[in-house]
């Protein structure tokens, strides 16, 4: 038995499923999750001492690689002054100014402690601001686990939400409409039906929770137009993409102005952080200036703010995003070239520091239903082949993979060498 296997068995006694967040249990790929002992740069090391080149990066935030000295130093130095005060600090002001300076759509921002809190609060604000109850999300987009967001589409043109999880009263989910990502007509149909009751559209500007699916041309612009036409707010959920796809986030990259933006992960540098922001007019509806209640004991935690600011300082340097994009492109194209070489159908998507690969005959994957039709057996075989050889990819065909600035040319070359070998073995079987 490996140490990870031992720990997994032990963990299952006292933690449901042995994990504190479901995807970590390797349900999507089978086998034993690796218990991680430490990480440095592009590498993580498990409890058995096996080192991996990491393409998960804590699901996005480790954009500089693990253990970056600037972040580590900021955390240690800030912690020396105390861990939490439940009172305002100058670090929060600095973080708010940084976010507002970098994102023209954001005049004011409120810090929270997770992406779930960010989206939950943004939706409450959109409902309070518009005085409407319904919200529209997209099937396959994940925005955290607030009750009204754990809803996926059934069939039919106008699909009123059915809860996706026991424990959510149908009454809580019935105001959630679900449309098809990258299909404007599915959105228009709902707005034609009940547009005056819809408070907001919420979406991932590059979907990263159904593998990696960028928006098709005109999709984001079309959503902006529909929102303007019906007086609904456009919430762009950048929890995964924010400051990873580009310095101006994904909405800046694609040139679309949101009413509210939600952020997370990257602005915490690995510490628990989220945020939501928008125009002053909308944000002034938040308590204590406005009536929409929102709060958090640990919100704007000084150590988390310091870590996030240190990370953003590094991301402000010249050429950072160009370098990250180039690394990502090399990996994604390398996977595709290896698959082609061995006659295995594969399609790839990549943007900024995130990428996805799909075992499919389709040239381009743009929709959720296409992801569900991909060859999951080949994905699992590829995943485990890579893992055994020291390459740690996202353990699910429904998650994007992530690059960091710490991934060297040698790391990438090694990754592609392994991919070539694993795909050759799959082709031979
Ligand atoms: N929104 C998006 C787009 C996400 O990817 C996630 C989590 N991966 C969340 C919200 C929820 O964030 P958290 O897990 O920090 O609650």
From TrEMBL:
GO aspect biological process, one term: protoporphyrinogen IX biosynthetic process
Chief site of localization: cytoplasm
Reactions catalysed according to its record: (S)-4-amino-5-oxopentanoate = 5-aminolevulinate
Pathway(s) the chain acts in: Porphyrin-containing compound metabolism; protoporphyrin-IX biosynthesis; 5-aminolevulinate from L-glutamyl-tRNA(Glu): step 2/2
CDD domains: OAT_like
Pfam families: Aminotran_3 (PF00202)
Protein family according to the UniProt entry: Belongs to the class-III pyridoxal-phosphate-dependent aminotransferase family. HemL subfamily.
Subunit structure: Homodimer.
Protein name, UniProt field: Glutamate-1-semialdehyde 2,1-aminomutase
Native source organism of the sequence: Paraferrimonas haliotis
